[in-house]
Design goal:
Distance between the termini: 15 Å
Largest sheet: 5 strands, mixed
Shape: globular
Protein name: Glucokinase
InterPro entries: ATPase_NBD, ROK
CATH topology of the largest domain: Nucleotidyltransferase, domain 5
Helix content: 25-40%
Order of helices and strands: EEEHEEEHEHEEEHHHHEHEH
Number of strands: 12
Pfam families: ROK
Radius of gyration: 19 Å
Number of helices: 9
Strand content: 15-25%
Family: Belongs to the ROK (NagC/XylR) family.
Structural class: alpha/beta
Length: 309
């Protein structure tokens, strides 16, 4: 039976139906960042009703990928970092059961992306795998000895985007409310601010864009645009060091790098691999560094794996 899957992203909500690792009826809704979850409840209800009708009632359940800390035993949201701030107070699981009449599972989005890539994608069922997700923020997850890492407080593995990279920084607040995190210096939500504060901004093609994000700095391939080039290299260097920290922490055999920006993998992957090779201490050999097979839908696919497991 099929699973209805919802990925609550920072700038987009994705909905679809997953069966045997395939996503059907994919629908992507662009959203305004920092809006409460309650804003999108009518949309979720409408999409689920549509999908239930399309599937003629043959549904195993509904899975939700959430960008924050999730208590998977209680099926509740513990905390969030700048996205859907009302979610911890909103009993989403009970609402789904009462209003939609479906069994529901909620899990951190990076963990679900990790599961999807592990079962059906680039992870190739490796017993030891790390996921590095580039979305609105930066998400991470780990599978150790074929088990998804969660930890006592459900935060094991998923806070790689909040490794402290710039301990001098006490002015640029991260989405988590702290300072100096990897996400706060090299993520989609930060790059717009970095670009506009740079002395090269007035000379850059980035001035033609209403909003600057990670995708846009990679879309400007002209090497004469010094700011776009600088921001690309800055972000990739920070990402590479984040991956090095994950390698040192979890000792994986494979690292999967995902997210929509990996459509620019021909630029990103050689850069990452070169930095990782030079900065990681791995006397027994480096892990394989690979691109996500499902850069846009891995979390949706992982929802099906969550139900199976």
């Amino acid at each position: 039976m099929a699973i209805i899957a919802i990925d609550l992203g920072g700038t987009r909500i994705k909905t679809g139906v997953v069966k045997n690792g395939e996503v059907e009826h994919l629908f992507i809704k662009e959203i305004a960042p920092n809006k409460p979850l309650s804003t999108y409840i009518p949309f979720i209800k409408e999409r689920v009703a549509y999908l239930k009708k399309e599937l003629n009632g043959e549904i195993k359940g509904l899975g939700i990928a959430f960008p924050g800390l999730v208590d998977t035993d209680k099926n509740s949201i513990i905390d969030t970092s700048g996205k859907y701030e009302d979610a911890p107070e909103f009993d989403l699981a009970t609402w789904v059961k009462q209003e939609l009449g479906l069994a529901v599972k909620i899990e951190n989005d990076a963990r679900l992306a990790c599961l999807g890539e592990w079962q059906y994608g680039a992870g190739n069922k490796s017993p030891d795998m790390v996921m590095f997700m580039l979305g609105t923020g930066i998400g991470t997850s780990a599978i150790i000895d074929n088990k998804l890492l969660r930890g006592k407080h459900y935060q094991a593995g998923v806070l790689g985007g909040h490794f402290i990279m710039d301990y001098h920084n006490t002015k640029d607040v991260c989405s988590c409310g702290k300072y100096g995190c990897l996400e706060s210096i090299a993520s989609t939500w930060r790059v717009d601010q970095l670009a506009k504060a740079h002395h090269l901004y007035s000379k850059s093609n980035l001035t033609k864009l209403n909003k600057i994000n990670i995708a846009s700095i990679f879309s400007i391939e002209n090497e004469t645009d010094e700011l776009a080039k600088h921001l690309r290299e800055h972000c990739m260097y920070v990402w590479a060091l984040g991956i090095v920290n994950l390698i040192h922490a979890y000792d994986p055999s494979v690292v999967v790098v995902g997210g929509g920006v990996m459509h620019s993998e021909s630029v990103i992957m050689p850069f990452l691999k070169d930095i990782i090779k030079n900065r990681a201490w791995c006397p027994s050999g480096l892990p394989e560094i690979v691109t996500s097979a499902y850069p846009d839908t891995a979390a949706l696919i992982g929802i099906e794996v969550l139900f199976k497991n």
